[in-house]
Batch of 2 targets.
Target 1
Amino acid sequence: MNKPTRTMRPYHPVRLHFPAVISLVATLILVFACTSRKPEAVTEAEPAPVETVHIVKGDPPATSELALLMREMTVFTDSTGKRLASGKDLLPYPEQFKTLKTAEATPGMVEHRTFDPFAHAWLNKLDALYTASASEKTGVFNAMVQTCAACHGQMCPGPLVRIKKLTIPED
Ligand code: HEC
């Protein structure tokens, strides 16, 4: 009984970090979805990959082929950045990303005249990452992330915040 509880204070539900809750919900909506989606559909804000590259299935429910590929690209890029920052080797070359230009998108999401040149540029950056010398890899990696952001600046801006966090410090 050395800490008497304060029963005097009235209960104020609005004081429960209301702004924090709002910004959390807003972040969850923005993290993955291009368009607003119910926040409960985005339960997994940060994929936590370590070594493997895999398609995130199930929750949120599977969307288009391209959306799944994008999630896989996000996981891959996150892992790769962490590996480079800690001086580790690259993951095996992700052949599956070659389908970037043909993967079926959510209807109405992709205008191929705009999408294709960015997709082409991104695949070139991916190749450059694998051919760059060790000292160039960090710079090429960040240029690859910039290309993600460049395409997303044209369409599907929702993931931009997440994408910008993928860059790694250059020295
Ligand atoms: C050529 C353009 C382009 C490039 C490059 C690109 N994206 Fe996307 N991204 C899209 C489009 C279009 C969608 C929407 C796909 C759909 O809904 O079918 C999308 C969707 C996403 C999503 C949402 C997936 C979901 O579950 O709804 C994430 C996250 C994402 N991209 C991250 C990235 C990251 C990270 C990179 C780089 C490693 C990247 N994107 C490169 C065009 C691009």
Target 2
Amino acid sequence: MNNQDRQDSVRKIRKRIEIHVGIAIAALVVAMGVGAAGFVYWGAYNVSALQQHTEPVFTILNLALDRSIRQRAEEIEPPSLTSQMAEQGRLIYQQKCVQCHGAPGVGRDDVGKGMTPVPPNLAHTAKAKGAAEVFWSVKHGIKMTGMPSWQFTFTDEQIWTIVAFIEQMPEMSVAEYQAMNANDSEDPAPPRDVTTASTSAEVRNAAEPDSERGKLALYGYGCIACHRIPGTVGPHADVGPPLKGIGERRYIAGVLANTEENMVHWLRHPTEVDPLTAMPDLGVTEQDARDMAAYLETLR
Ligand code: HEC
Ligand code: HEC
């Protein structure tokens, strides 16, 4: 065999190996695809809320969650958190958070039990994480955990008061927490005074309606649970009418002329327009209604 022949046969063998490896990889990809599809289709994955992930999966998910939040919180500059703020934050915490997260000496309510992931102890969180990360988590919520976003419930200023309270939790004894609560009136004032607060929300009132923010609000208020809305992803339940083309319809709910003012009115107080409507009052603020109306207006 001369040199040239040897090189040719080496090349041929290499070519054959490449083809075989190629076929093997393609077969593997197809098999994985079929496996994954079957796994989904035959319901092999147990979605029970009591079926904890395996330790490695749990660790990776937590890492992904922590990294994601840290990345997004980097730009946030916390204000100085005073004890006066913490006192306001405590009232909100008791109404909206304690049922899931508990408090010093207070266990999780039925809602917060039996969840996976379990709502964490926030005294621990306050030690492990920075105020900006806590703020981000509360404002934006955490997908696929059950932690809601509160940005359409509270202003940024209000969220900082909650953060101020959480920051105090690591040092708070059960007795101290009980003493704080002892002075509360029977019915602590509902914290949701977004419309009167002198806040960024108020400043924004003068601003042009923001349709992008309006689109986010459609998720924030759970509109997508009842309506099919172009540009959003949801359960397509059709409890309410699909909103495709709502921007060019003559009437809202068949009774109001479709103007911007009327749309804002409908979104905020549908039961004032029609006491028997199945569309509930969702506590929509003026600004949020304007932003949502701006988005709906684009649907043609
Ligand atoms: C319906 C139950 C529920 C309610 C109500 C709720 N949370 Fe959560 N919260 C969760 C769950 C579940 C997680 C995510 C657990 C995880 O990190 O895996 C979470 C995560 C968090 C985190 C991030 C914790 C961490 O260690 O990174 C913060 C901060 C937080 N919640 C604060 C609040 C505040 C403040 C409120 C009230 C305004 C609130 N939560 C209301 C269930 C809830
Ligand atoms: C619990 C289910 C439910 C939720 C949540 C809900 N809606 Fe509705 N919506 C309805 C129903 C039902 C109607 C029809 C009302 C009627 O005709 O009396 C309706 C009507 C409407 C209409 C008028 C549609 C038309 O064809 O004229 C608009 C616009 C609308 N909803 C927007 C929203 C927005 C935006 C949100 C979130 C802030 C929302 N809805 C939340 C059930 C819901």
